[in-house]
Amino acid sequence: MRTQIAALLAASLPLVLTACGSDSPGPGATTGCTSAAVTNATPQTACMGTTIVASTANNYAFTSTMKLPPLTVKSMSNLTFDWGGVTKDFLAHPINASNSLDTMSLLVFQLPLAELETKLNADTLSQQDVYQVPPPSWPASGAAGATTSAQLYTFTANGLAIPQADFDRATDPAMFDRSMFTFMAAASHGLVIGEGFRMLQTFHIDAGASSTTVALKDDSTQLTCQVSLRNLTITGVTAGTPALTMSWQNMVDTGATNALGSVFKDNYVTSAIVGHFTETPEQLEKKFLDLDMIATKYYRADITNNGMLDFTTLRTEGGEAFPGVDDTGTWMVGLICGNCRNPAPWYMTILKPCT
Amino acid sequence: MRRTSAPLALCGCLVLAIGCAPSAGDPGTGGSNGGAGTTGAAGTTGNAGTTGAAGTTGTAGTTGSAGSGISGTTGTAGSIAGTTGTAGSSGGSVGSGGRGGSSAGRGGTTGNAGTTGTAGSGAGGTGSGNCTFTQSSMISPMIGTVGIVTWSTTLAGATSAKIDFGLTTSYGMSAPVSTVAASNNRTLLLGMKTQRMYNYRITAMGGGASCESPNYTIMTGNLPTGLMKPNVSPATATGLSGGFLITAQYQGNPVTAFILDADGDYVWAFGGIGSQLTGARMSYDGRYMWINNANVPNGTAMVRRVSMDGMTNENYSSQFTGMNHQMAILPDETVAYYAYGSNGCDDVKEFKPNGAAPGGTGKTVVNSKTALRINDSMCHLNNIQYSMEDDSLVFSNLQSSQIAKVKRSDGSTTWILNGSSATITGISWSGGNHGIHLLGLNRLLIFNNNNGGSGGSIAKEYMWSGTSGSQVWSYTASPAQPNMVMGDLQRMPNGNTVVAYSTRGVIDEVNAQGMLLQRMTSAGAGATFGYIEKRATLYGPPPR
After folding, report:
1. Is there a smaller number of Cβ atoms within 10 Å at the N or the C end of chain B?
2. 22-81 in A: which are within 8 Å (CB) of B?
């Protein structure tokens, strides 16, 4: 059963660290990560023992770009939203449109497209950029089943019927000029409006257009990112013990920036992850969207002590405790701002045994 | 700013018995078993006992202000005091030790400072009145920003008291105490920010006299991880009403009922009781926070009454079946609310904890369809307020865009605004309504959602005389803030109006001329606000 009012934008964004395998983007690819230039030929290691203090020098770097090429459809018409052509989500992870995409929402942003893309990429999009909350959505309730299309006039507002006149008013180009507004069809997994977006398709409305179909395809949303794991100072820790702690309070206190370039604010980090990989840092840069999928071990913990991670609280999904770091493969620890719009880790560093 | 871990901060419990009868504080060295200063002003040269063992038997004067003894500034002594409750007790023997002890609460994280600083040389103090205070304090283990001070005084005939508290010794906030018991008075310090050292001072009054305690300190702890401070722009502005904002997290995480101070900092939060919280109102006596969920569409109502220290969490959900949106608290602690009715229209109801309601559930005052005199198949109420002047209830209905007043005594309708059954002419709006604020018997503010209209939602003020009225004020945000569901507003004592565009995560404060003074925007992804209440203090009755 769908719950109500949208927690908008919670996942409208660039990255989710959950993903299926995708190789580095080849020529012309629309989704994937590349490596940043290596400026540090010989990686340095700072030995910290069991007490890790996070710092900018130890942090990775990350940037992403999301492009949303628009369609143009007929205004004030009973538009058809068709997501049958989606075989991959915007992270390039395979999905089955008929059973992975459950909800279609019509988002109207009070921004021209270019500014919408800019705000998405800068992670500065906010709730009030959405013109209508809750957004019209489909289905009204319950599971959508195997359907892969829906008509605009069947959309509801929080389960309540919307008069056709309101739809026409809401898609009137005289009121919603493209110089100020952008329409977006957002297909999501699950029935909570505003969460779990898997593919986004922007569109403009035009009285002279003939098409009445907003067709979502694999390239409706084009996401690329650049990652740097090889320019950071490796964090040396005591091997073989889970009795490690990591504090980032100094980054908060000093106004340091996170990997995305924003201020490291107090109380924003809600969880931490630690992963072990067989890949090298260079390979991990290219597979950054797939980290949790390719990890040989993947541990996570909720942060209950603001500003501090206790590694003994880390567990795999199966409940296995973090054993400590060894000298095999690549170990990384990341800090997640779970309530931020961009789910890329604020902090990620490589852990390595150090005596 | 120095940080300490939450559990340690939560454990900070300072036990101090500070001498304050005016006494000459001789420079002293050790705090053990020190006698209370009895004669004079605070010493200014004493070296707080850096080596003295914490005394446990000293009887300190109660009003002496700490001298400049080192113990007071090093703050180490109290660290042990904070955890063991003993170190500070002797500091009063010469005055400044007590101060050192209180600082110590912060140091409690190290756990090894107990032998230093308690001796407090030199202080005594210049207290007023002949009385002694014995007190201890701790941070609530449930809410890291709530201080709990347990205290007693020897002031003969003490009938009332207050605890002034703040980030400096100028204080700024005050917790009133209306009755004083012989011992174990328990007073909450509400409105404190996270992870800060607060100063506080007890003043007891009675029998034509009063006396003040020395200054004590307490270190606050954390609130739930992930609470993201809203953006406030501009950070300061002339003419703001100030005070505290009580609301709840409707969408986004973590889901809590919470209080923000004038800086937009979280000073209270309570969660873990479900999702989609829209209602948060303090009880009339200020001892509890009532919290409820949206429950739209009709599912399971969640209603809790949580003591302000978070230590008591009473589940009233079964007594509020079908309740939705929010509630109003009456002076006798009766809760006015509305719940889904059998005819498609909500019932206006009341419930009195520990009393009046028959069968432990709310009594129905009137069905809204009856009160509104309409034949609609659905009435969806979304706000209720209490009119003290005529002991009536005023409610808002979304579907018919109407607001009506009914008498509590018999449910009869006093007036209806807007719509086909309006009893007041000259007042009309369209596009739905949510929050209301009664400004008198013939004046009110409404949050007009203005769904389907242009320009976004509008705050409107109406006034009427007899059966004729008109709009006298309005505020439309720029850029437009169309808020289809939810929305609330409140007129402040200084004439400003606070308008909450709830589901857009925007709260504006505007002046009487409709000029935007400050905008608060939610920071978390998808974070939206519930209904709001601003109040100057977290003590005493609510503002409406």
Report:
1. N
2. none
